[in-house]
């Protein structure tokens, strides 16, 4: 018998190749393929019904899709900027603390320790118009005597979701910016003091440029996070009211699993991934640029 | 331009006192060098003048003002740091002009001041580079340029040449001296290198363990050290020290070696003393300077030689202690060769054996 002889490097890599194909490659190819079919979960044989670019054309002309797209970009922009500002403030305050800083740093991480699903439920309760904490507090303080529909009014619901996002993720910025603050050399800051800078000017002209790479890393991480946001929204509003808080992935999830139109959902998914890729590339470009500014490797 | 006065200045880190009540008066336009071994409190003292460290006690005056409670930007000083401390994200031009920009000067004035400073320090071709693209010596010059654009009342230097190689250090030393002659401003300069101190200073302040040991011109501290610490710290090679006992008009060392008491020192019979002689004042007969008035001769075996070209350094043993001597017009010397050395007694020193303080009258 003539046994098949594989080169040793291939034999050694084979386990990795098999696992990678099983968990990454096959789903990827399958989903990409199905986005060109009219695949419906309820009719498995429809996966062989090739429709070409029909799903993509449909998605690109679908108002609902673009509304969700726009809302996701809005959430991303607002949440990331606010998280950055709050995280920066938090990091600056923590870095000034002389005692118990380690404890504070650990406490800063608390929001990240909870599952987004639980955070969603928590804020769903907090913003509930009848029994919620916020309305109770406002009414007890006499600031209002009616029940504010936090999760029912379209604008307020978006606000509530942004609030929850910020609560969970500000610490990502906080921690990374704190790491940046620790990494700043002392000398240029002292030189700035001697050169006549006030505390604000030192921050503006010396500290901030040193922090930019850290801020962009946090932005890159968080933009991926927010671009795929699903859980918190799903729990708090389920995309409602009347799709006013529908984001890309809640829309895609609904299309795929509720309406069972998996082929169409996959097509929207592939378009959405470009959004994430765009933001990642953008922030990494900024990161490289800000590092170059500081004379750190190309 | 301004004088600087330190009055009983103390620095404490928590319970630890690192600068002990020092007093120093620096005249307008004077170049003063603080020198001492690492950890003696030079930087701390300088940083208190700069306003980068709080002052735990006493007063610092710059000009006619007590500046204890003023932030650095209100003290009208500028500082050059050991690690240059340039702003890495700014070009050389921006680094130089930064303090003027903060002071809200017009762009035209800034450009003019930057150009002048760049001209003085030969930085003109480098103005558009970032510090990352400069050599150590160039960064050092940018750091100095940043200090001079503002015409401060006092310049503070903290070991500005320590990170440069030997050749560049010598070159920059000359440039700093020229700069002082041109600007005529008050300079306080910190270094651990006694050669830098000797070559640059109008007056040297020698510090040890948070105290000032001696203040004087370079020649003064070289020729009249107040104690053994200053004697060995200033001058290279360090002063030879021999422990002995006064016997009448003579000093007796271990092994019975005897030398006359050098002129100008008050001694008592039986007193334990430390005798100090520099290598320049102990030379082999026939390879020495012309004989002076007060001479003594000793015979020693040479253990080791270090030829330096115009002179050779000889390592020998006298009364059980290693001493270094100098040989002019050198000839080859064998290890173990016995030679007669002449000692110029009027250049020698006597210190109290216990306190190390000079016994000069
Ligand atoms: N932040 C600090 N906390 C505690 N001790 C310090 C601090 N900074 C300096 N010291 C101590 O003060 C002494 C003087 O330091 P420094 O002025 O830097 O010495 P140098 O003469 O080498 O410049 C040293 O013993 C050093 O350990
Ligand atoms: Mg120092």
From TrEMBL, chain A:
Domain of life of the native organism: Bacteria
Domain ABC transmembrane type-1: start-end pairs: 69-283
Transmembrane segments: 12-33, 73-94, 106-127, 156-184, 205-224, 267-284
One of the GO BP terms on file: transmembrane transport
Topology within the bilayer: Multi-pass membrane protein
Keyword ATP-binding among record annotations: no
GO cellular component: plasma membrane
Keywords: Cell membrane, Membrane, Transmembrane, Transmembrane helix, Transport
CDD domains: TM_PBP2
Keyword Transport belongs to the record: yes
Alphabetical list of Pfam families matching this protein: BPD_transp_1
Annotated InterPro entries: MetI-like, MetI-like_sf
Localization, UniProt: Cell membrane
Protein family (similarity comment): Belongs to the binding-protein-dependent transport system permease family.
PANTHER family linked to this entry: BLR7065 PROTEIN, SPERMIDINE_PUTRESCINE TRANSPORT SYSTEM PERMEASE PROTEIN
UniProt name for this protein: Sugar ABC transporter permease
Species this protein is from: Thalassospira profundimaris
UniProtKB/TrEMBL annotation, chain B:
Residue intervals passing through the bilayer: none
ABC transporter domain sequence ranges: 4-234
Biological process annotations from GO: carbohydrate transport
GO cellular component, one term: ATP-binding cassette (ABC) transporter complex, substrate-binding subunit-containing
Superkingdom of source: Bacteria
Keyword annotations: ATP-binding, Nucleotide-binding, Transport
SUPFAM superfamilies according to UniProt: MOP-like, P-loop containing nucleoside triphosphate hydrolases
CDD domains: ABC_MalK_N
InterPro entries: AAA+_ATPase, ABC_transporter-like_ATP-bd, ABC_transporter-like_CS, ABC_transpr_MalK-like, ABC_transpr_MalK/UgpC-like, Mo/tungstate-bd_C_term_dom, NA-bd_OB-fold, OB_MalK-like
UniProt key word Ubl conjugation: no
PROSITE patterns (UniProt xref): ABC_TRANSPORTER_1, ABC_TRANSPORTER_2
GO function term, MF aspect, one: ATP hydrolysis activity
Family: Belongs to the ABC transporter superfamily.
PANTHER family: MALTODEXTRIN IMPORT ATP-BINDING PROTEIN MSMX, OSMOPROTECTIVE COMPOUNDS UPTAKE ATP-BINDING PROTEIN GGTA
Name of protein: Sugar ABC transporter ATPase
Organism: Thalassospira profundimaris
Lineage summary: Bacteria, Pseudomonadati, Pseudomonadota, Alphaproteobacteria, Rhodospirillales
